[in-house]
Task: structure prediction
Amino acid sequence: MTEAILLVGGQGTRLRPVTVNTPKPMVPAAGVPFLAHQIARAAAAGVTHIVMATCYLAEVFEPYFGDGSAFGVSLEYVVEDEPLGTGGAIRNAARRLTGGPDEPVLVFNGDILTGLDIAGLVDAHRAVDADVTLHLVRVEDPRAFGLVPTDPDGRVLAFTEKPQTPEEIVTDQINAGCYVFRRGVIDSIPDGRPVSVERETFPGLLASGARLHGVTEDTYWLDLGKPESFVQASADLVRGVVSSPAVPGPRGEALVLPGAKVADGALLSGGTVVGVGARVEAGAVVAGSIVLDGAVVGEDTRVTASLIGAGASVGSRTVLDGAVIGDGAVVGSDNELRAGVRVWCETELPAGSVRFSSDR
Result:
């Protein structure tokens, strides 16, 4: 198996303000754009040609990844003028594929971190001669996902997208966002219009008698759609809870990138990342957080499970707990921001102006 389509066209609205200036797959996690981890893992599994399906801020991908040679793959870029949905994006990107109609094509989303055995998924696809094979995972609360019940042999029986009633919850297996398509099946997706692979393509294939196979693998899996999930994913990569060849340093409690300065007496833990040129001043305690390039964390500040954007500044004695600070924002000293608070890019909060707030 040598080819893949990587879906990276979404706007990442749930991650704002992190994604105001940067598309979600390019937001740094564990020191590099999140997309670098996916490409590195695909390359390690034997993928040599990836077509990247882009739309939102499409111009930022190629300058970083180039032709892919630095990552051990050949990369091509397809830009959607208008969002085409998951199925439409797959169909649009397929024109750059080179394999024959029976060759497998890996398709994966740019906002899922998983420990999936990619090569094993392709092997399972070949073994049962499936038209499409889906990676499935089990979750405690499946209501926010697409349910995919299977028979004992793994044959997909139905699709229920985001069930609304208890009667609809017939399984805890959900669509995990990684697929293997028979190349010819992709050509059956309508061209030139928005198509949902979850709501239209898969149910349509099932109704037509196509063989859809599900592989349920109990492995690390995290949807990075929300800020708290993104921060957790970065921390888990740094700590080695889930592996990636792209992490630019040894696994441990913290990753400090070149040019960053951490003062004596500052404490970093929980998989924290301190970006290039960032500063963490004396007495600061930063746990399980992302401090992006050029940001500043002031003296005696406490930062937990938070993301501080590029060039942002957080003043002395401030508390951040589950907060997101946008690029270039200035949070004055003696503030307290908790429980999902988001400070927009370039915003300035005066010293002591917020003692506690929440968006919940």
Summary: The first strand starts at residue 3 and ends at 7. The chain has a mean pLDDT of 91.
